[in-house]
Design a protein that fits this description.
Blueprint: E1 4-10, E2 16-22, H1 41-44, E3 57-59, E4 65-68, E5 75-76, H2 101-112, E6 115-117, E7 123-127, E8 132-134, H3 159-169, E9 173-175, E10 182-186, E11 191-193, H4 218-228, H5 238-255, H6 257-264, H7 271-292, H8 299-309, E12 312-314, E13 323-325
Antiparallel strand pairs: 1-2, 3-4, 4-5, 6-7, 7-8, 9-10, 10-11, 12-13
Helix pairs in contact: 5-7
Length: 330
């Protein structure tokens, strides 16, 4: 499917290194990605460590460092917070055994691929609230409106996490909307990898998707295929946008015809209130219709159509009632 051929190299310690040989039609020419020469060198040289690397750290939500054990791959914080747990001395780890709830959450985030390594090789996560990465470390000093911590869900973030933000803005980090899996672009292998243990083990694969080279999982392959087929949207002329807005305006007024007729029946009671109510309702309905059809709302055009087609009240003949001519398009 992709223009890369995996090869295997046996080193002196009999470990397997996966390499991708990119062919000329590289993925770097995809319109979705920012040209790599505009990316700072330290970001292009960044390579996440393998998930099996021991000693990787994640700050839990209660702001306690939790480290990955080399024995079983679980996270442990070393706190004595395990009570009434069978076959446990009450301590979370520090290298094996049961782990606490906060460390189990770290295991889950890494296993699902929603946590990734930042430039300092510390696990961080993506916040949908601010669309930024946070690692929850106390590394921010003398920053206004900040308690010193990077996140965990909003506020300023550290330099290591801001590097991931820049890669994401340029398209070199992709986040799956359905699962929240974070995929990194490998400048050396010219592919996306998420680092999850979802691959079938074989002589060519250690069971992990990447994280810097080797075979891909289905999610990363589909992400890459989607980006390869991406075409930037063509600009739309202002005249066409005005015509589409006019169509939406007339469509909404036709849909609200019955309601408008009911409101007109009350015109003799309070004309000014009814006029304001009708305008506010149409304003909201047209805004929602424009949002659904991805057309920018044009306040000037709305006011122009409202003035041209709105009601005229003539109180010359009757002091208590009004003679009304309503929208010409009803």
């Amino acid at each position: 499917m992709f223009s890369a051929v995996p090869t295997v190299t046996n080193t002196n310690n009999n470990t397997i290194i996966f390499q991708q040989q990119a062919l000329p039609n590289t993925f770097k020419n995809t319109p979705y990605l920012c040209p790599d020469y505009q990316i700072p060198t330290h970001l292009k040289q960044f390579k996440p460590l393998h998930p099996c690397t021991s000693g990787l750290t994640m700050m839990t939500l209660d702001r306690v460092p939790s480290r990955r054990s080399a024995e079983n791959g679980h996270f442990y914080c070393g706190r004595y917070n395990m009570y009434n747990v069978p076959n446990c001395d009450g301590c979370c780890g520090p290298t094996n055994g049961p782990n606490c709830q906060a460390c189990r959450r770290a295991d889950d985030m890494v296993g699902r691929g929603t946590a990734t390594l930042n430039l300092d090789q510390v696990y961080c996560w993506y916040s949908c609230e601010t669309h930024s990465f946070y690692c929850n470390r106390n590394v921010l000093y003398n920053v206004p409106n900040c308690d010193g911590y990077c996140g965990p869900t909003n506020g300023p973030n550290c330099n290591a996490c801001r590097g991931l933000d820049e890669l994401k803005r340029n398209g070199y980090i992709q986040i799956d909307e359905a699962t929240g899996v974070v995929s990194h672009y490998s400048f050396s292998a010219n592919h996306f990898y998420c680092g999850r243990a979802v691959m079938q083990r074989s002589n060519l694969c250690d069971g992990y998707c990447g994280p810097t080279d080797g075979p891909q999982c289905n999610l990363c392959a589909n992400t890459e295929l989607r980006l390869r087929n991406y075409r930037p949207p063509q600009p739309v002329s202002p005249l066409i946008l005005v015509q589409r807005f006019q169509e939406i305006f007339y469509q909404v007024t036709q849909q609200q015809n019955v309601w408008l007729q009911q409101q007109l029946a009350q015109m003799g009671y309070n004309p000014n209130w009814v006029v304001s109510s009708i305008r506010d309702s149409l304003h909201y309905q047209v805004q929602q219709a424009c949002l659904q059809q991805q057309i920018p709302f044009n306040e000037v055009e709305f006011q122009r159509h409202w003035i041209n087609g709105s009601m005229s009240i003539d109180n010359s003949k009757h002091s208590t009632s009004s003679r009304i001519t309503f929208f010409h398009f009803l």
